[in-house]
Amino acid sequence: MKEVITREANQLEEWDRAHVWHPFTQMKDFLAAGQPVVIKEAEGVLLRDIHGKEYIDGVSSMWCNIHGHSNRHIDRAVKAQLDKVAHSTLLGLSNVPAVTLAKRLVDVTPEGLNRVFYSDNGSTAVEVALKMSFQYWQQTGSPGKKGFIALEHGYHGDTLGAVGVGGMKPFHELYRPLLFDTEFAPSPYCYRCPLHMDKETCKLACLDRLEEIMKKNCHRTAAFIMEPLVQGAGGMIVHPPGFLRGVRELCDRYDVLFITDEVMTGFGRTGRMFACQHEDVVPDIMCLSKGINGGYMPLAATLTTDRIYDAFLGDSEKTFYHGHTYTGHPLGCAAALASLDIFEREGVLDSLRPKVRLLRGFLDRFHELKHVGEARQLGLIAAIELVRDKGTKEEFLPGENVGQRVILEARKRGAFLRPLGDIIVVMPPLSITEEELTRLMDIIYESIRTMDAHF
Ligand code: PLP
Which of 21, 90, 291, 370 could disulfide-link to 267, CB 3.0 to 4.6 Å? Predict the structure, then answer.
C-alpha cells in the first residue's frame, strides 16, 4: 500500500516538474531545487504534503487564509450553496449570496461606501477601481483628469492596469512600454527613508513631497492609489501614523479620488477589520479580495460611494462597461458570508490582541540576530528584513539568495514561508493559536540563526 502511495506521489512530482509553470518563479531555479512540495490536504494552520509531512502555513496561503484551512463553518456554507446553485450570472440577474454579501460588506466597511462591484481577484478589484475613477471624471465635466498617482514600492496586482500603478521596479519595469503614465511619490519606508530623514524628526516630509506631486498634476489626475498602512509585496513596509490621514486630506484638497487597496490588509490582518479604520479614513474607492471569504476561492469587491455611482446613471454611454463571467460567484459569496459570521460569532478581532503582543515579543528578540536589520509589525503581519550589515543597512547581493535559504531551512523544520527577496514575511491565519505562533516563530528564529553562521 505504502509503495503505491509513494509511486503516486512520485508521479505527481514528475508531472508538476513537466507541466506546471509556477507564478512568480524562476523555473530554472525551481527545477534545480529538487522535488516540489505538493500539498494534499490541510487543516487549521497546517498544510500536509503528499508524503504526509506537515508545515505551518506561515503566509496564510499567499496572505488570504483567515480562519484556518478546512474550516467547518465555511465548508458547510459552501456545500449548502452547492446544493442550491453553483453559479449563475450577475449580468442582468442577481443571486442570493451576492446580494446578502453586498449588504454585509457595506455594513462592515467605513461609512459611505454603499455600492459594491464584484470581480474575481485583487488585480481585477484594482482594474475596476482605476477604470471607475477614470470614467467618473469623464462623466462629470473634467475629461482631462485621466492619470494616476501611486507610491513607490506599491503593488496592486499583475493585470496591465494594476501593473501601471505598481511601483516595484523588478516586477514592473519591463512592462513599462505597455502601460499608461503614472506619477510615483516616495513611499514612507522609514527604515530606508527615500528622503534620507529620521522618522522621529521628519514630520512626515514624504507627505510634503506627495503634495508637490499632487499640486502639479491634479488637473490631470483621476485618482491616487495606495495600500493603506502596510505596503505588502514591496516589503511589508509599515507606514508611520498619520500618513494615511494626511493622504486623505491631500486628495480632498486637490480634488483627486482616493483608492485604498485593502486586498492584503483587509479582514483583520492589521488588528482592525480594515486598515483605513486605524485612522478613521473613508476612501472614495476601496478594493477587497484575498481574505474576503477566509481565503477559500477567488472573489473580489470594489466598493464606492453614492457620489461616484450616481455619475454612471444616465444614457447607455454612461454605463460602466466592465464585468467578468464569475462576477459575484455564489459559492465565493456564500463562503464570504460564513467568514463574516465567524468574525462576529467568535470575536476574532478581540482574540487577536494577545497574539499580536506575543508576536511583538518574538520580533524584539529577533533584533539580537546578526543579520536582522529591522523586524516590523502591524497586527498579525510581520516582516524581518535581513541585511549584510546592520550599521550601514547594506543589502546582500541578489545571487546570495539569503531569504530563499532561510525559508528552505524553515521548511525542513516544518513551516512554509515565502520571502520577498531578503525580507522574511510572517502572516499566519488569524486563527493561529498562541502555541502554534510560538512554534512558527521559534522555527523562523532558528532558520535565520543557522543562516547567520554562513555569512
Ligand atoms: N493588491 C494587493 C495589495 C496585493 O497584495 C495583491 C496580491 O498580493 C493584489 C492587489 C493582487 O491580488 P491577486 O493576486 O488576487 O490578483
Answer: 291
